[in-house]
Structures are given as C-alpha cells and as structure tokens.
Amino acid sequence: SAMGGAAAAAGAARWIQRLSAARISTEALERGQSRVIDASLTLIRERAKLKVGELLRAMGGVKASATLLGVPLGHNSSFLQGPAFAPPRIREAIWCGSTNSSTEEGKELNDPRVLTDVGDVPIQEIRDCGVEDDRLMHVISESVKTVMDEDPLRPLVLGGDHSISYPVVRAVSEKLGGPVDILHLDAHPDIYDCFEGNTYSHASSFARIMEGGYARRLLQVGLRSITKEGREQGKRFGVEQYEMRTFSRDREKLENLKLGEGVKGVYVSVDVDCLDPAFAPGVSHIEPGGLSFRDVLNILQNLQGDVVAGDVVEFNPQRDTVDGMTAMVAAKLVRELSAKISK
C-alpha cells in the first residue's frame, strides 16, 4: 500500500490529536519520544562498542571495517513503500549459504575486520510515537555518527528508500569535518527541489545534499529517467550526470574513476534500480535500459579512492519476482562494497 509522506504525517498528526484529546501534555509526549530515541541510539552504540571496541581492537591490524546499519524507511517513496522491508532480506541473502563468504578479490566476509553489523534503526517504532520526519532524519544521522564514533567502523547502510542518503551523507560529512565526493548509481537523479510537496522525498535527497554543501563532486551514473528539472538542477549544483544513452562512450572513463583526493573521502550510493530490470526486477520503479551487474561491479571495483561510507537502497522485496533474485543482487552489491571499504 503506497502511503506517501503526507499520509504518514497525517498519521502522526492523528496520533498526537488523540493524545491531546486524552489530555497528555506536549512535554510528556516529547519526553516519551526522546526516551524511545535515546534507547534506539543506545542499542546501536552498545552493539558498535561490543563488536568493534572489544573485538576488532583485540584482533588488531585493521584500518577500516564495513559495518551494516539498516534503515528500514519506506514512507518517503513517491510510489511504493516496499523498501522498508529490505534490510532483513538483504542480510538473509548475504548469509543464506547458497554461495561462499569470499568476495571476488578474496576478502572473507565472515572476518569481522571486513564486515560487522550493528542492526537497524527502529524507524517504525520511532514513527509510531508520532516523531515527525525532521527529527527522524536527525535520528538517522545520529545513528550513523554513533557507528563512526567507534574507529575503525565505516557505515554501510541498508535502505530503505533513497531519502535516507541525505541524513547519512550529512552525518558522514559532519563527522569527518568536510565534504566528500559521491558516486551515485541510479536510474534517476533524485534531485528535485521538492517532490509532491515533500522536501524529504526519495526524489529530492541529492538536492538536500548539494544544498548542505556535503559533497564536492557528485557523479550520477546509470541515468535514464531524467526530466528537464532533473537536468536543470544538475547544472545548478554542478553535478556530473552520465546518462545511459551515452554509456558505451562513457564506459572507459567510468570504469577508471579516481575520486576523493583533497576531500574527506568517497561516498558510494547504489540505488538497485541503476541496474537493468532484467538483473534486478525487485524495485519500485522499473526502468528498462540500465547497467548490467558486471558494469556496476567494474565501476565499483576499479574505483580509486578511500570509500568512507556507502548505501544500497530502493530494493523492494514486495516486487522481487524470481525467488529472491534481487535480494541476492543487493547482497552481492553489499559484499563487494564491504571489500572496497575494509582495509
């Protein structure tokens, strides 16, 4: 059931109306919300301390370890809400046993120096308390910073819809003290100023990122559903947009990217719909004419740069037609990104 940002806000508003009808004060409500948020952050913090603090430091010799953080948020989707259900499906596919735990170049995923997991931000539980999007986005940012507090953890975020990239990139940039270069693989530029009245829409995340000054360079690869506004916004923010119609010409450049020098590193955001739907049918926006899976891996594996964080978003399990195939695709993206991040 597609419930847009407006409907979600209305749900929160109704809940608050019921509370005020029951004469519960705003202060009491806010105190309750803060308790739930604090508890959520505490759980992530303690998991990160346990998994890294203790374990990785004892093992030694690790500079960076990819750490999964799930953000099961779907309500900022303009069409379907299914991406909220993606994180557990991706985890299940990573460890399902149909394949071994080696990445292509030979790193072992079951080595915590390569990959750890601190669980999910409990998005639905927080929203059920009537917390609005503005504050929810801050909770996502705080969760990411909590992971980064534990050196050498680097967040690899499982979405969710693409609206989550804004609070994640904001947190990474603020925590590192400067902008990053972003490699953004997607069928869509997600750079509308505001989509259907929602500034936090999954179609607007990169407009918020660029306005905030969190990125020096933004490279968008795989585009094939882009409007006049998408191109104009791209020009306005100096985005390097690579459209699929010229991919055969751009391929060599994109398979030999060098990013992140002179800034705080590289952030990689992979929207599963960057892939042709033949490879990944389980997405909300089926857009034929996309990248092959090997195209994406060539771009990611050959990328030169210090990948400080990343996300894999917009997998929609409710549309995954072929026995969890897209879940395996998302999982393999996560596996190869883990190899890229860890060192």
TrEMBL record:
It holds the Pfam family Arginase. CDD domains: Agmatinase-like_2 (cd11593). It is an enzyme of class 3 (hydrolase). One of its GO terms (molecular function) is agmatinase activity. Keywords: Arginine metabolism, Hydrolase, Manganese, Metal-binding. PROSITE patterns: ARGINASE_1, ARGINASE_2. GO terms for biological process: putrescine biosynthetic process from arginine, via agmatine. Mn(2+) binds at H162, D186, H188, D190, D271, D273. Binds 2 manganese ions per subunit. The keyword Metal-binding applies. Signal peptide: none annotated. It catalyses: L-arginine + H2O = urea + L-ornithine. InterPro entries: Ureohydrolase, Ureohydrolase_dom_sf, Ureohydrolase_Mn_BS. Its cofactor is Mn(2+). Its EC number is 3.5.3.1. Pathway: Nitrogen metabolism; urea cycle; L-ornithine and urea from L-arginine: step 1/1. Belongs to the arginase family. Agmatinase subfamily. Catalyzes the hydrolysis of L-arginine to urea and L-ornithine. The latter can be utilized in the urea cycle or as a precursor for the synthesis of both polyamines and proline. This is Arginase 1, mitochondrial. It comes from Aegilops tauschii subsp. strangulata.
